[in-house]
Design goal:
mainly alpha, 4 helices, Cytochrome Bc1 Complex, Chain D, domain 2
Length: 130
Amino acid sequence: MEASDSTSPAVATAATVPESSPASWTLPQPDAGYNVREGRALFLHYCSTCHGTEGHGDGLNAYNLDPKPRDLADPAFQAERPDADLATVVRTGGGAAGLSTGMPPWGRTLSERQIRNLVVFLRTLARTPS
């Protein structure tokens, strides 16, 4: 076969292969859509009874609690809490984080991946300030 034949497969040569080092490579990030969907499902199952389906602290059990559950959609709350703090509260419960002892620890129920995805979902609850 001749090199000019249009049906021959392309062969990479040193001139056509881009030079790059592993340090410049970036790995694909997991689909945020899946992470949010899993986090939402976990939130609805484990958290919405107290925090409400939209995270406003108005779940079915909220009126029984003192103090009332946190409004997780509050922009000021969202702005002041890093993801690591939210994950710690989910993992260890409110009492271990110096908050309400009414918030149970989920660290033995949820995996680290599930906790991360729950935090990803919590970030979608933030309202824009009026």
